Amino acid sequence: MTAPVPGHLARILVGHSGPVNGVAFSPDARLLATAGHDRTARLWDPATGKQQRTLIVHSGPGRPVWGLAFSPDGRLLATAGHDGTARLWDPATGEQWRTLSEDGAVYGVAFSPDGRLLATAGRYGRARLWDPATGKQQRTLSQAGAVIDVAFSPGGRLLATVGDDSDGDGGGGVGGGGVGVGVGGTVRLWDPATGKQQRTLSQDRAVWGVAFSPDGRLLATASQDGTARLWDPATGEQQRTLSQDCTVWGVAFSPDGHLLATADDGGTVRLWD
Predict the structure, then answer these.
(1) Stated pTM of the model
(2) Can you tell me the distance from the alpha carbon of 248 to that of 207, in angstroms, rounded to the nearest whole number?
(3) Between 219 and 264, where is the model more confident?
(4) CB crowding 190-211: b at 16 or more within 10 Å, else e
(5) CB burial of residue 17 (10 Å; 0-12, 13-18, 19+)
(6) β-sheet bridge partners, residue 86
(7) Can you list the alpha helix ranges (DSSP code H) found in 69-117?
(8) pLDDT digits (tens, 9 = 90+) for 206-218
(9) For residue 237, which of 214, 217, 255 has the smallest C-alpha distance?
(10) Is pLDDT above 50 for 53?
């Protein structure tokens, strides 16, 4: 692949008192949200680096905020918490709008492209679909082991869930949060309109992250087995394996779909063609 243009560090945002578990830009790029191990989500002005507000998501120790996502119109921010809640916030005011309660840690959140559904990834083998406008649960998608991450396809016709095949009570995994280690992983593709499972993609170890390409023709997964894999979501066929020497935690496509970024526990981010 052509070498990317060298970048430079624009600024460092200092505020969290522990690890930062997730980041998300608002649709208009005027806000950056960060999820912290310190039980807070923080909103920043990326142009100036100034912190705009701190959202106290949980009280008490040991309750990290694992992930977050803006709604497509930018009017809501969803946070995923270890206390078994997904919370909806007004990023303009910092007011908490709604709390969606589950029976175990919530590891990930994702809005559908039209903003009418919020998907949550749960510890005890359940992904849930909610109506963010009412807070009502629309559907529960059950699988073996913890659900670690969720992603909607660009058209909203598919929901991908990823995780492991443990019983969800292991001591390792995400921050010691009960996600099993060393077991097989699965990627499941669902029809969010009906709740029917369309396809199951299997890997040797737990799958930590998932992302659709902008055109929806590829699905990327990040795995504990040291690989990022590219799949055809229409057929379930594996297209390519990108091998590394350590766990891959996350994957993200560039907006034009020409690059895939992988994040690993060796402290490296790699860009792939």
Answers:
(1) 0.90
(2) 9
(3) 219
(4) bebeeeeebbebebebbbbbbb
(5) exposed
(6) 80, 100
(7) none
(8) 999 999 999 999 9
(9) 217
(10) yes
